[in-house]
Amino acid sequence: MQNKASEFRSGDELAGVSASTAEERVAAKAVLAELTLADLRNNPAVPYEEDEVTRIIQDAVNEKIFGEIKNWTVSELREWILDSHTTGDDIKRISKGLTSEMVAAVAKLMSNMDLIQGASKIRIKKFCNTEIGGEGILATRLQPNHTTDDPDGIMLSTYEGLSFGQGDALLGLNPVDDSVDSVMRVLQRFHEIKTKWQIPTQICVLAHVTTQMEAVRRGAPTDLIFQSIAGSQKGNEAFGITGGYDSGSKRIGFKTRNSYRA
């Protein structure tokens, strides 16, 4: 039903899970609006017994806060978020009692303007070498990908991007070659550029998390460790990762005095 309540997406259509008509989409939204948050928690997208991600999310729920809101309908959660008296701190507190299914459900009942209004109340600040997320700050990632991961070619693309004022959030490349040696070469070049020009930013090569961890063990300069994650155990297994990698990468980042923020 959550998929049918979503606005049209080609991926849902190809997977055969989207609403077949506009009327069916509206009907799905109406049903979803009347479900309680307890209904959604008791019926996760993937069963608790079968999925590591579900277990991580469910076990992290603040039971006291969830107890305060479990009888709210999804529609009531939407109205509460958009209420002019609800602050960003209020939303952050309540978020500790929510699961992914609840967040997804309320988003499906919101228009684009609703989402903008709700999100505008929240400030999520993150700090590595620099801080992002503050009011009035638009930070961007500079991604100087290269077809062969040639350090000189990457350097030229990096300088071009910097000339446009980009890269204050991150100098971060998606590598073609996921080997440790190649990742170390690119990180070293990023580090030389950042250090030479005293650029207030972070550097990272977005290889597989295990490759990044090994590069750091060998002394590669990096500021953060990154890994894409999926919303299910099977999805993460396709990436070749489990929940345990997060704590391992944090330990390595702190041990080598490199900054890491999830």
From TrEMBL:
Quote the cellular component terms of the Gene Ontology held in the record: cytosol; ethanolamine ammonia-lyase complex
The record, for InterPro entries, names: Aldolase_TIM, EutB, EutB_dom_2_sf, EutB_N_sf
Q: Which Pfam families does the record cross-reference, listed alphabetically?
A: EutB
Species this chain originates from: Leptotrichia trevisanii
Q: Protein name, please?
A: Ethanolamine transporter
Where are the bilayer-spanning segments? none
What is any one GO biological process for this UniProt entry? amino acid metabolic process
One GO MF term on file is: ethanolamine ammonia-lyase activity
